[in-house]
Amino acid sequence: MVALELINHMIPPLKPTDDGHKAIVWMEELRMNQLPVIEKGRFLGFINEEIILEENDSKKPVNQYYLDAEQCFVTEHQHFYDVIKVAAQHESQLVAVLSDSGIFQGVIALEDTINAFAESTAVQEPGAILVLLMNQRDYSLAEISRLIESEDVKILSSTINSDPKDAAMLRVTLKLNKSEVSHVTASLERFGYRIIGRFQEEEIKSNDQERFDLLMRYLNI
After folding, report:
1. Domain limits of the chain?
2. Gene3D superfamilies from the xrefs (predicted)?
3. Strands 94-98 and 166-176: what pairing?
4. Are 169 and 163 in contact (CB under 8 A)?
5. CB of 132 within 8 A of CB of 196?
6. For the segment 70-102, what is each residue's pLDDT rounded down to a tens digit?
7. How remote is the C-alpha of 107 from its chain's centroid?
8. C-alpha distances in angstroms, 36 versus 5, 53, 69, 87?
9. Which homologous superfamily is 3-117 in?
10. What is the value of pTM for the model shown?
11. Domain 122-200 has what CATH class?
């Protein structure tokens, strides 16, 4: 899914001539703490509720307040992973979307991106999750895929993160298309891969059911 498909058309942009009061009213209605500001189709940045309240003068036009995160944008064809990355870099709940020619198209709320991820095949499809720990120089997704697919299992998604305890190591998280993967873990371990996490859907559902049963018993007391 690309940025253009995630634009939230319920979030309007402000003009530089709009005043702080209008910005605050819109933010309250939308339950947000920031809004985009544009001028003649050009994205200027975001105005934050906190800045307006600190100024203690909501009659001032928006262009007299400090605007931040003017670089918090993606182009319309970028992937939603890029949206999450940009939002995290700027610690913003909104990301502006620009056309290839730099014209403002709208904004994406971070929660819309999270919803898009939750609806993706990798999340919705049942299957186990494996977490592997390995040296960076030993990482090869092609080799890992070959071993897993030799066991008649597919990788739905993969993510890579540096190990917080050792920068030379990687944590590779794999979502697979099957829940029973003991034969996969055996194969990976046979070829020297270290598995530090294993989560199977049946186990998760069982744990959730146990918690639900405990809660119901508590409420019946």
Report:
1. 3-117, 122-200
2. CBS-domain (3.10.580.10)
3. unpaired
4. yes
5. yes
6. 899 999 998 877 888 898 889 888 999 999 999
7. 15
8. 18, 17, 10, 14
9. CBS-domain (3.10.580.10)
10. 0.63
11. alpha beta
Angle at the Cα of 201 from the Cα atoms of 196 and 203, rounded to 5 degrees? 75
Tokens, residue 208: 């959730």
Q: How far is the CA of 214 from the CAs of 127, 175, 206, 219, in angstroms?
A: 26, 29, 12, 9
Residue with tokens 């040296």: 135
pLDDT tens per residue, range 7-27? 999 999 999 999 999 999 999
Q: What is the identity of the amino acid at 33?
A: N
CA distance 221 to 209: 19
Q: Which residues of 50-68 are buried (b: 16+ CB within 10 A; e: fewer)?
A: ebbeeeeeeeeebeebebb
Q: Residue 152 — φ and ψ, nearest 5°?
A: 60, 40
